[in-house]
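In the previous chapter we treated chains in isolation. Here, by contrast, the input contains four separate entities that must be folded as one system, with a combined length of 224 residues.
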Amino acid sequence: MSDAALWAALADAHRRAIVALLLAGPRTVGEIAEECGLSQPSASKHLKVLREAGLVRVRQQAQRRVHTLDPAPMAALDAWLAPYRKLWGESLDALGRRLDEQPDTTEPTPKD
Amino acid sequence: MSDAALWAALADAHRRAIVALLLAGPRTVGEIAEECGLSQPSASKHLKVLREAGLVRVRQQAQRRVHTLDPAPMAALDAWLAPYRKLWGESLDALGRRLDEQPDTTEPTPKD
DNA sequence: CTCGTACATTCCTTGACAGGAATATAACTG
DNA sequence: CAGTTATATTCCTGTCAAGGAATGTACGAG
């Protein structure tokens, strides 16, 4: 269930910012730290989390570590999202009615 | 930035389980607690988080509170995911090469 | 009005995580 | 080799979220 690592990694706004930044191209740790307004150690730690979640790859270049986005794990998110995507395609009102087939009492009557 | 609330809500595995459960239809708090192996207070609290993230709606029926999934906020996730989706559409190998202007060492993935 | 059911909320404790400072490590430079 | 750059790691601290136990609250039945 490395799924958990993925969600945890993306749950942090700074890490989402890093990932978004890497969308524009590879960056060294220092660049990432600066562009995201993070301290170097903080950037380093966030990148570690992203690496362990498989979202980022690193390539060493002299003393620098160039980080590259690996969007592959996000396919899992996409897959997770799939069943829900169908739902917001249908009207939400219709959704409520359609799902309301429970052995419970009926009569929707939302106060909305 | 209620985006944060959404990510935070879905970052928890129990809450994802609840959401997945509600995919099958509305449930009372008690049912959710039981089917997810949660205590009643725990379920109640998780549902509160989901409600505040807009992922779940509640309809009161006698003493019971029937919770219904509202997938609408997930569209934000979908939108967030969009730029990345393109990337894994291209071959990941190609991506790697495209971003990789200078072939070098690849990290051997410390552990998993 | 009293009781029972279904939930919500509070209080408390614990564990995970983030950020900063300082330090360690690795790689290039001369 | 010493020094510098770029990054990783450790230690410490504060914060915040989760879980459990106990209690509060709303609703309906009788």
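Residues 63 and 88 of chain B are 48 Å apart (CA to CA). The first strand of chain B starts at residue 27 and ends at 28. Compare these points with the single-chain example from earlier in the chapter.
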